[in-house]
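Full entry
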Amino acid sequence: MPLQFPEVQDIPLGSSPLAEVVFQIRFDPILRIANQQPADFHELIRGTFPKFDQESPVVLQFPNDGSRPAPVSVDIAPQLFRFLSRDKATAVSISTDFLAVSTLSYESWDQFSAIIKMALDAFVSTYSHVDLTRVGLRYVNNLVPKQLGLRDLTETTEVLNQALTAVAQEGPWDHVAGFGVQLDLGDGPGRTLAIRYGTRYSEDEESLVLDLDYYQIGEIETHGLVEQLADFHEKIYQAFRWSIRPDRITVFGPLEEGIHE
């Protein structure tokens, strides 16, 4: 049964909790990317992404059985090529089996989808006969109490829909030091919305993360993919609004007239 979140009006937020947005496709490996730098691909997006970074990830494999000494194996992962905007806030990354677009300065779906289209057009023009196996769109929200005018993490947790936080709020305890939950919600053949939420701690702040990841697995066409992603975006926004208590959306400073405390 498809997801049926309540339909809501898209409201711009003055204090948006959005920390990062990521689009990614996965495909059957293209050895050409492993054997040569994607110079032709970069040339098609270089006007927007002039900066370049390259990584050769190293993966350490530790033995699972600790009962006896065993060597640690070292694997060299495929090359990762990353092209960055001038302010380094937005990146296009490509490797042998995936292409990703990510940004730390999301403004609107129209703007971000235009960047996705640029990257996809360049990818299809450079590499032919691509067989996609997965496509995903992910919105990571970081709710920091002091940025929202809230006292602490407990008060921030109360912003979320009680259907999500009941497990942390109701039980034989007085204080919850931290929690993390993931819900994988089916939305028709091959489609899933993963809702991940929980506490995050760093040296200088504590926050509540609401990570919304919508993806499809299976045989996927590149043609019309950006239009298909608009549906992903809509489902994610509906899930975000459902995840926030209606009477607490005001902590994000909605800019639409008529919304008050």
